[in-house]
Amino acid sequence: MVIKKSISEGIRGAIIDCATATEYLEKVKNQFNDSTKAYAQTIIERLSTMKYNGGGVRDHILSMSTMAAKLKTMNRRLPDPYVVHLALNSLPGEFSTFIVNYNS
């Protein structure tokens, strides 16, 4: 009962009652693991479809790097060369000189 009272109503309602506290805490853990996977999938989709929309290129690349760092904290690490590839491909053709200079 003490554990249930310390958990918010929204989470408490999503978890079925259990006989022991250990079993209940395991179900709470599983509930959050599933939501972490969905959140990671959302970040990966945003990262792979992100396009430069104006403003500073540095800010654009830093936002992509931040998304990749969030994935690392969820044990869903993307290789750094792949993140660089995504960042360079998200830039429009007017930045082709920048891309060539980076690749060389």
Characterize the structure shown.
The structure is a single chain. The protein has 104 residues and is mainly α. It has one domain (2-103). 72% of the residues lie in helices and 0% in strands. The protein is built from six helices and no strands. Helix 3 packs antiparallel against helix 4. The longest helix is centred in the middle third of the chain and has 29 residues, at 21-49. The relative contact order is 0.10. The model has no long low-confidence stretch (mean pLDDT 84).
Largest sheet: none
Which percent bin holds the helix content?
over 70%
Provide the domain count.
1
Low-confidence stretches: none
Distance between the termini: 63 Å
Mean pLDDT: 84
Topology readout:
Elements: H1 2-6, H2 9-14, H3 21-49, H4 57-73, H5 80-89, H6 96-103
Briefly, what is this?
The chain is mainly alpha-helical. The chain has six helices and no strands. The protein has one domain.
Main attributes of the structure:
elongated, mainly alpha
